[in-house]
Write a structure and sequence with these properties.
heterodimer; A: mainly alpha; B: mainly alpha; 16 helices; globular
């Protein structure tokens, strides 16, 4: 009956006023807790966590130098050797290559491990660039409105008028192939999405009472924008950014595949796959595994983005 | 309604102009002297001056832009540098394949995606629902080119010799020739005339052409060649459409009028098909419009994987070979098509939902 006494105590005795009103959980903390309660969110986070670990620990995990040509270094190997794992019945005299060798007799497993560095950094940087530029443009357009709004949003409309990947290809063509230009091109074509969402968000936030209160207190426009409007407008962008990382990784891989992105000898999954695509019938492992790596990484970000959308949507909050 | 359509068309015009200007500027941003890349590294100064005068490159940039827009508006796309043939001719040859591929992929995505979404929503939170959504998540995460190669590997190599085997590349089997409908029907159209170009363009849609001329062997062959690329290309839109249909239908099924329909004793089937589905399809229509861009972008990759000579591969080759007229013309045509299709989607949205017209 101890619990009953506790309860009676709580009801009758005067309480610490701090504890009478329960502090509401903050938006982000609450969202994170809800995210952890969703399977998609947890699976997504785990995949990304795993990939980040692999990327960070690449030198420890990779059994070989990703760019080292092993012909002449090892006995009993030839180019495009299929996977050889000793415990799975591969002959003991052959050196172990878990995912086989590529067309230059490099260890594919090591290359895939190092490839995670390229894909993850491309994903994060692209979104960072697009997010910063897009959100700023959207905030300016939404907050000040008028001709500035018109000019910014019409330019965004033109960018959206092109199929994204085609425009990105044209930009890379103008700037020259390579990983950095790919990154820039993908960032440019994804700016309008952030700008539009940010603008819509700012438009609704700036009409709210607490912004009017700030204005009445004499805060400057810049101050209101920075301390009141922007922090409250960012929520919907976070979801787009997470899903944007997925798209960026996919697009960067497509550029690698088309030969416009990462160049040899960089271990980039799309480019690895492209180099061996004509060998798909004779050496399918060289096409299968890089693609699988892309898919799993992209899936991680897509799942996380989905989970975050649910977690941040107040209408679904318990 | 008419006013609504008019307003939408007016809104599309600045975007189209912007696209023209953007392609013009992009082509001029590509590094290198167009004269030297055309006439060769060792072209003399006089030759280059003559070249610049010929191509109007000695005019100020705004004048060049004006000429360019006027030419484009008249359908004069110039001549390809690499093939020294009119770009419009290359468009006639290459574009139909891409259109056929995208349309087939879109039809596949709709035919499978929408029913999947409906079933998922009706069996909310069951194994079917969870399975479909997992498929959708994996579907949007798959690189198109990878899926294409896997499909080619499976259907052309693993299933080789079985009735399910499908060709991994090309548009028609060797030896088959598509006879254009205007020749099959003996229409005497003059080579190079406008109707001839239009008929040629239409007849280069092999599936359509063989269908109207009744060439069933060719029709079946063209379809077989189309299945794998279209399947690869349709996966992402299919997954997105399935997801959108599901969430939109779930939303509508929770509304009061649906409860009223149920209270009247309508069967679940009737509630979904007659009452909920129409309203649920509105957001799906929007998504379809947005997916057209993904289809066109994906076409470049799919065509590369399956060795198809379409607009996507042409554009890609032109970019790597710096064939500016082709780059400009293909980008403008594709982007314009994209804008026009989205305009149609917008207008149809106004047709389905009268409220939109007033916004």
């Amino acid at each position: 009956m101890a619990w009953m006494r506790d309860r009676l105590d709580r009801m009758t005795k005067p309480q610490d006023p701090e504890r009478l009103v329960e502090r509401p959980t903050g938006l982000w903390k609450g969202a994170f807790q809800r995210l952890l309660r969703r399977k998609t969110g947890v699976v997504g986070l785990s995949i990304i966590g795993f990939m980040v670990l692999v990327a960070l620990a690449a030198p420890v995990l990779a059994p070989y130098d990703p760019n080292k040509v092993l012909i002449g270094q090892e006995e009993n190997i030839k180019r495009r050797d299929p996977p050889c794992v000793h415990i799975l019945g591969c002959e003991a005299e052959k050196p172990q290559h878990v995912l086989g060798l590529d067309g230059n007799a490099r260890d594919q497993f090591s290359r895939i491990i190092y490839g995670s560095r390229v894909s993850l950094s491309v994903g994060f940087t692209t979104v960072l660039v697009a997010f910063t530029i897009g959100a700023s443009l959207g905030a300016i357009a939404g907050f000040w409105g008028g001709w500035l709004d018109n000019v910014i949003m019409r330019v965004m409309d033109v960018v959206l008028g092109f199929p994204a990947l085609l425009l990105a290809i044209a930009i890379v063509a103008a700037l020259g192939p390579g990983l950095r230009n790919t990154l820039l091109a993908i960032a440019i074509v994804s700016i309008p999405a952030y700008a539009r969402v940010m603008r819509a968000s700012v438009l609704s936030i700036k009409e709210l009472d607490f912004v009017a209160a700030s204005r009445a207190l004499g805060a400057s426009s810049i101050r209101i924008l920075w301390t009141r409007v922007i922090p409250n407008s960012l929520t919907p962008l976070v979801v787009i950014a997470t899903l944007g990382i997925a798209t960026a990784i996919l697009d960067a891989a497509a550029f690698g595949f088309l030969g416009l992105g990462a160049q040899e000898p960089t271990a980039e999954w799309g480019a690895m796959l492209a180099r061996e695509r004509n060998q798909v019938f004779s050496a399918p492992h060289l096409v299968f595994f890089p693609g699988l790596a892309i898919m799993i990484t992209v899936l991680g970000f897509n799942l996380l983005g989905d989970g975050m959308r649910d977690a941040l949507d107040p209408s679904l909050a318990e | 309604m008419l006013q609504f359509v008019g307003r939408r068309i007016l809104l599309a015009i600045p975007v189209l102009l912007g696209i023209l200007i953007a392609t013009f500027l992009l082509a001029r941003m590509i590094p290198g002297d167009p004269c030297r890349s055309l006439l060769g590294e060792r072209a003399t100064e006089e030759a280059c001056d003559r070249f610049a005068k010929n191509k109007g490159l000695d005019e100020p940039i705004p004048v060049q832009l004006g000429i360019y827009i006027a030419d484009m508006a008249q359908g004069d796309f110039g001549r390809s540098i690499r093939f020294s043939r009119p770009v419009s001719q290359i468009l006639i040859e290459r574009l139909p394949l891409t259109i056929e591929l995208s349309v087939t992929a879109l039809v596949l995505a709709l035919l499978i995606g929408i029913p999947l979404g409906i079933i998922s929503a009706m069996k909310h939170n069951t194994a079917i629902d969870v399975g479909t959504m997992m498929f959708a998540n994996v579907g949007v995460s798959m690189p198109v080119f990878w899926l294409g190669l896997l499909l080619a590997y499976f259907f052309a190599l693993v299933l080789q010799g079985t009735p399910l085997a499908l060709p991994p590349s090309g548009r028609l089997s060797a030896g088959l020739i598509s006879i254009p409908f205007y020749e099959a029907w003996g229409w005497g159209v003059r080579d190079g005339s406008l109707p001839h170009s239009m008929f040629e363009f239409i007849s280069n849609h092999y599936i359509f052409n063989s269908l109207v001329t009744g060439d069933w062997r060719l029709f079946w062959d063209a379809i077989q060649h189309m299945i794998l690329p279209a399947a690869a290309l349709s996966t992402i839109p299919m997954a997105i459409i399935a997801r959108m249909t599901r969430s939109s239908l779930l939303d509508v099924l929770g509304r009061d009028y649906v409860r009223t329909a149920r209270a009247k004793g309508a069967t679940e089937r009737r509630v979904v098909v007659r009452h909920a589905l129409r309203n649920a399809m509105l957001p799906v229509v929007t998504i379809i419009g947005l997916q057209l861009g993904a289809l066109l972008s994906g076409a470049v990759l799919t065509e590369t994987v399956f060795g198809l000579a379409g607009a996507g591969t042409m554009l890609f080759e032109a970019i790597t070979a710096r064939d500016y007229p082709i780059i400009q013309a293909f980008t403008v045509v594709i982007a314009t098509g994209y804008v026009v299709l989205n305009l149609i989607v917008d207008v149809s949205y106004g047709y389905f939902d009268p409220r939109v017209r007033l916004e």
